[in-house]
Design a protein that fits this description.
Layout lengths: L41 H14 L8 H6 L8 H5 L7 H5 L14 H6 L24 H12 L33 E11 L3 E10 L6 E10 L3 E9 L17 E3 L9 H4 L5 E7 L3 E5 L4 E5 L4 E10 L5 E12 L6 E9 L9 E10 L4 E9 L4 E9 L5 E7 L7 E10 L4 E10 L17 E6 L1
Parallel strand pairs: 8-11
Antiparallel strand pairs: 1-10, 2-5, 2-9, 3-7, 3-8, 3-10, 4-6, 4-9, 11-18, 12-17, 13-16, 13-18, 14-15, 14-17
Length: 455
Amino acid sequence: MRSHAQRLSVPALAALLLSCSGDAGTPPASGIGPVPAIPDGSFARIQRDIFDVSCISCHKSGDPNARQSGLVLTSDSSYHQLVGTASVQGNARTDGLLRVRPFKGDSSLLYHKLAWTPGHHGRDYGQLMPMGSTQGVSTGQLEYVRRWIEGGAPRSGHVADTMVLRDTRVQTAGFLPLPRPASGVQLRVDSFAVAPSTERELFVYRKLGNATELYVTRIESRMRPGSHHLLLYTFDEARTAFPCNTRPSPDAVRDIRNGDGTLNLVNMLPMACHVFFVGAMTQDFEYRFPPGVALRLPANAALDFNVHYANRSAAVLPGEAVANLHTVDVSQVQTVAKTLNFANENIPLPPGQRTTHTRAFVVNARTTILALTSHMHALGERFEILVRRASGAEQSVYVNTDWEHPAFTNFPTPLVLQPGDALVSVVTWNNTTNRTIRFGLASTDEMDIIFGYWY
């Protein structure tokens, strides 16, 4: 069977995390201040003090973020694109949220995106806003938005009490660590600094300290705001030539970029030997295998923990990540699952045009697929996965239009591929730059990767 651990020529996820204006629109230092002058209506104030200051650097016509989200927040568009309008964000759409649902703040995605209180979100609705900032709108501004929504979200008129704006305390990017699993392993990347206007991607090699095999039935992870991805890798034990005949130093932080932004090739060498084990591109992630199914880790296992942050603000952004691997006794396992990693590296994207690439990954043994997800960068508009039968018949099984927070699709009834069948990636990009974009590690490159679990 063609290897489901097919690696990239430089096999690591890269990230392109475009950021909004960051701290340009942050409120003053914590405290109680005077009530600002009242503009013409509650929504006009929100437009002037929040959208115009902190949002339209990204959410404007022609910007990749606006194109991806379908949301333009300039004054000529914002109201109609918010109020009563469905979101393209997967979890919000599933939960029945609108961008703004009049009279219902808890059913309005705008409120959830602006609320930075740790633990506020029962669900992951994507990056908090303003993206790339170390803090959100002020506590008073958040409450003002909530009261405007609860007051019916009118386009004109005053429905929110301006006194709440006296609360100028900032919302900080809090982080609630995950409790340790009752049975299993917790892995961490401790708090680290991401300098202003930079990206930081690093690895930490963690030994699990397990004397016997582990069987993982549930995976959960959490990252601080501003993150792009979290990945755990095992190593291909069948490859014994350099650089795969050595392992990184345990617990040492290995940045893939030097201080001047150039790539650190020495720290990147282990990436040639990686095998995907766990991946998440949302701040909170959880996956449970079906009863009796588990991933296996050998005794004395170790995992390479990879996290990526991008900071477009003028202040230092803290990064941090934690992952829990919940385990069961081997007596509860009937089927050992494996990880799937298919990559299409031949994706030249000519400048100034929209391009679609299709790649089929054929299997030569019966393959039962439990879950699928995708990875592309900011020029990506649509990632579809098809099942193509040996007969030529095709069925769409996965569609994602959110490059930054791709859908993770769990199949309660697994997809079964027979020999000769294939998974097919059909990806569309809109290259708005003046140069040809190709597959690669840099944030200015693109990617076309299918991840998943199978047996």
